[in-house]
Amino acid sequence: MAITPLMPVYPRSPVRPVRGEGVYLYGEQGERYLDFAAGIAVNLLGHGHPHLTKSIQEQAATLMHVSNLYGSPQGEAFAQRLVDTTFADTVFFTNSGAEAVECSIKTARRYHYAKGNPHKHDLITFSNAFHGRTMATISATDQAKLRDGFAPLLEGFKVVEFNDLDAALAAIDENTAGFLVEPIQGEGGIRPATHEFLAGLRAACEENDLMLVFDEVQCGVARTGTLYAYEQYGIEPDIMASAKGIGGGFPMGACLATEKAAGGMVVGTHGSTYGGNPLAMAAGQAVFDVIANDEFLNGVRQKGERLRSALEQMIPNHDHLFESVRGVGLMLGVKMKTDSRAFVTYLRTKGLLTVAAGDNVMRVLPPLTIEEEHIREFVDTLSAAAAEYEVPAAAA
Ligand SMILES: *Cc1c(COP(=O)(O)O)cnc(C)c1O
Fold first, then answer.
1. Ligand 1 pocket check for 160: Cβ under 6 Å
2. Cα–Cα distance measured from residue 300 to residue 352, given in angstroms and rounded to the nearest whole number
3. Any residues with CB less than 8 A from the CB of 238 and at least 6 apart, and which?
4. Which residues bind N(2)-acetyl-L-ornithine (predicted)?
């Protein structure tokens, strides 16, 4: 048998972490890596954070899982915290980002169904979006690499150009339920939506009674220096998917909605066996204990500015490789003039972990707990590596 026991759907790198400490990962032979990938924007508190670890340990010993058949003091408390700190009035907990987006799609459709408009089932989505790997979430994007071979895809999605307000407005018809959009595209290459774009979508939703659904799975949970990215736009969604960083490494997600938007989500319409179990809630609470305060969020913005300007200062020294820096807070992307995937692979041999994204972007997504010394180490190592890097012939 040639197939590996782990289904070979990932091009796994030779980096094989077995231990983590703060901003560093350690491989099987003790090799050390500076982790500016953070599990793809997940490990907000780095590795082995004492408060998160202790909370999970204590909750695991107290009560791990009971199912959603019973009352949940743990779920109620964390949902209340999300309600208190966001636009939302109600929360459904999931185990992943894709499930949070699925719940968001279902909530948007069900809103119109409950109002007697079951034909309003189409979501307008955007080019190069990434919403996950389930059937609905791959149907919601135009990226061929996510969709090829999985037909028939689900109906009910219309993809138009990202940041093109006119195209989005022109796509509205009598079947439109709303818009599904990442305020800052992650996998698509750290591409922020413009303010005019999101403001235009919001206005169209008001005018046509549509649902504005934000996918903040990657850009949410303090990553950009506010609890959620929408705050910086001053534009609130009706429904929002959150995940990745929300559990700090514990697998969980959440679908947040206003009371109006969740109008169709009554008893029996949705569910999850694990979703919101006491162990997940302990992880989420521990993450929020650390991040959900002005001091921490201001720190993220400051570190983001520091890292961005250090990267920008470095670029002229290697302008055959790097073009520009984009993004918000500690969700940064370096636009490259060469294949970013090959460069990210090369950086791993220098002990630096970053993540490739679309549009030849190298994503820089460190734990939010980094210190000045880590920023310096990152940029120094990156700059030295860039000086030595030989652009592969095929990518030149
Ligand atoms: C990662 C991601 C998802 C999917 O999350 P999973 O936990 O992998 O299912 C959805 N949307 C965005 C914007 C993401 O970055």
1. no
2. 21
3. 108, 111, 178, 205, 211, 212, 213, 257, 258, 260, 261
4. 133, 272
pLDDT value at 1 more than 90: no
Residue with tokens 């590996």: 4
Both tokens of 283, joined, read: 């992880």
Which helix (H) or strand (E) covers residue 177, if one does? strand 176-181
Domains of the chain in sequence order:
72-291 (3.40.640.10), 294-359 (no CATH)
pLDDT digits 0-9 by tens, 290-342: 999 999 999 999 999 999 999 999 999 999 999 999 999 999 999 999 999 99
What distance in angstroms lies between residue 218's CA and the mean position of ligand 1's atoms?
A: 7
Q: Where are the alpha helices (DSSP H) in 181-317?
A: 195-208, 230-233, 278-291, 294-314
Residue 394 confidence (pLDDT) = 66
pLDDT attached to residue 396: 47
343 pLDDT more than 70: yes
pLDDT over threshold 90, residue 97? yes
The Å distance, Cα 131 to ligand 1 centre, comes to: 5
Buried b (16+ CB within 10 A) or exposed e, 58-93: ebeeeeeeeeeeeebebbeebbebbeeebbbebbbb
Residue from 218, 224, 230, 240 to probe ligand 1 pocket by mutation (most atoms less than 8 Å from CB):
218
- State if residue 216 touches ligand 1 by the CB under 6 angstroms criterion: no
Assess whether the C-beta atom of 96 lies below 6 angstroms from ligand 1.
yes
Q: Average pLDDT of the chain?
A: 97
107 annotated as ligand-binding: no
pLDDT digits (tens, 9 = 90+) for 228-268: 999 999 999 999 999 999 999 999 999 999 999 999 999 99
Mean predicted confidence (pLDDT) in 64-87: 98
